[in-house]
Design a protein that fits this description.
Layout (H helix, E strand, L loop, with lengths): L2 E4 L6 E3 L15 E4 L32 E4 L2 H6 L4 E5 L2 E2 L4 E2 L6 H15 L3 E5 L3 H13 L3 E6 L7 E2 L6 E6 L3 H12 L4 E3 L6 H7 L1 H10 L5 E5 L4 H16 L8 E7 L4 H7 L7 H4 L3 H6 L19 H8 L2 E5 L1 H15 L5 H15 L9 E5 L4 H7 L3 E2 L10 H8 L1
Parallel strand pairs: 5-16, 8-9, 8-12, 9-11, 13-14, 13-16, 14-15
Antiparallel strand pairs: 1-2, 1-3, 4-5, 6-7, 10-17
The protein binds pyridoxal-5'-phosphate and zinc ion.
């Protein structure tokens, strides 16, 4: 094995058989421990360039991966001299080839590869958008069957650039929580397995490749890391990547400061962190959640159960890095996103626009200074370019009569 898993609660280290939690049942995010202590780059076009620090033995073929480039235009507008963009999306002129246009694809490929290697059954994913599209594309690329459960009103977001023959797409009345409920019930059936969200080391280390790519490109760990967060998984991944890079020894010895943003009025992580609380208290941190979620443009950021308090989760990441959190209005996000598009030529996912506004807010508050080395994680974009280049094929939903009977029964209860 090229890696082991470690429980952050009891410290036990064990072989990876696809676990999402400690065999002794401790709550806490397992962490992958890699035998390569110094990062060795693989000769691969996409994210598997960083396979040494991904929990897989083999490498599927894909061009999907993060890219890092120095910002000129947006940096000048912001007044920064050393701003780097970590981009996950589609912009072939920048060598960015993620056809589903978000960093969720960085999670999907290693998650499916790890699942294949550990033989854990058919993956079941509940999603209202970017995650579902990313897993559909990767499942097709790897020819691995998956089950996707999606609210009917989000179906338009589930498309791929090649016919998705390996995807069983189930439409559910209701919202994302209803999709999760159905997915959970399918996972109780034999042969099906949940993807585990932040608990899955393959998802986190896949997202961590954005940070690795930035460090390799610039030669150092940045002073600041800026991202829009829903679950915070991407930020936990950046923290873990930074810890590994410090262990490597060639990229510096200090953790980056995390500057994380959510979209007002739904900002549970901002609210809990600013109160210096480890627990999210729904009545305080996300009052009138349903209405608040409806008012948010970047709805991928509206996670109601983020891995915040759990050991090894977002609270620990923010504490270790000295985190700052920002609540961003739709108006400020739209303006900052438009400025980015104007100056860098890439159209953004609404969540990435929130990150752009957070960077501007951090500068205004004096949290980031002009010459600091800053990594802005542009988590999604390039939708326009991908549609010019590829046929964008909606994934077809499966009708109840075509479902395996065990699932059809669940679906109707
Ligand atoms: C999911 C997503 C995010 C938020 O990521 P988390 O890891 O859930 O915090 C940000 N931007 C885009 C484009 C996303 O799809
Ligand atoms: Zn344990």
């Amino acid at each position: 094995m090229t890696h082991m898993l470690r429980c952050p609660v009891c410290g036990k280290v064990f072989n990876d058989r696809g676990e999402l939690t400690c065999p002794d049942g401790h709550p806490g995010l397992l962490r992958a421990i890699y035998s390569e202590k110094q990062l060795i780059l693989r000769d691969e076009p996409g994210l598997f360039r960083y396979a040494g620090w991904l929990p897989v033995q083999q490498i599927p073929e894909t061009m999907s991966g993060p890219v890092t480039f120095r910002s000129d235009g947006f940096a000048a507008e912001a007044g920064l001299s050393n701003l780097w963009i970590g981009f996950s999306g589609y912009a072939p002129e920048r060598n960015a080839h993620i056809p589903t246009c978000s960093f969720k694809e960085l999670e999907a490929w290693p998650t499916l590869e790890r699942l294949k290697e550990t033989g854990c059954g058919t993956l079941v994913i509940a999603s209202a958008g970017n995650t579902g599209r990313a897993f559909a594309e990767a499942a097709q690329g790897m020819e691995i069957p998956i089950i996707l459960v999606v609210p009917t009103r989000s179906l338009y977001r589930i498309w791929t650039t090649r016919p998705a023959e390996n995807v069983t797409l189930i439409a559910v009345d209701g919202d994302y929580s209803d999709a999760i409920a159905i997915a959970d019930r399918i996972c109780e059936l034999p042969g099906f397995t949940p993807e585990g969200g932040a608990r899955n080391v393959a998802r986190r280390d896949g997202m961590g490749t954005v940070f690795l790519d930035a460090a390799v490109t610039t030669g150092r760990i940045p002073d600041h890391y800026v991202q829009a967060v829903g679950s915070g998984t991407g930020a936990i991944a950046a923290w873990e990547a930074a810890l590994r890079l410090i262990g490597d020894g060639r990229y510096g010895g200090a953790l980056p400061r995390l500057h994380l943003a959510q979209n007002l009025p739904f900002i549970p992580l901002v609210s809990a962190w600013q109160a210096q609380r480890r627990e999210i208290i729904p009545a305080i941190d996300m009052p009138h959640a349903e209405e608040a979620i409806r008012d948010v443009h970047a709805d991928v950021l509206t996670n109601r159960r983020p891995p915040y308090a759990v050991t090894g989760g977002l609270y620990d990441a923010l504490s270790d890095c000295g985190g700052r959190m920002y609540g961003i209005t739709n108006h400020d996000a739209d303006r900052a996103g438009a400025l980015f598009e104007e100056t860098e030529g890439i159209d953004l996912d609404p969540a990435a626009a929130v990150a752009c506004a957070a960077l501007l807010a951090a500068l205004e508050r004096g949290e980031i200074e002009e010459d600091d080395c800053t990594l802005l994680n542009i988590t999604g974009g390039g939708y326009r370019a991908v549609q010019e280049k590829y046929p964008v094929l909606p994934v077809e939903i499966i009708q109840p009569q075509e479902m395996p009977s065990c699932i059809a029964e669940l679906h109707h209860v």
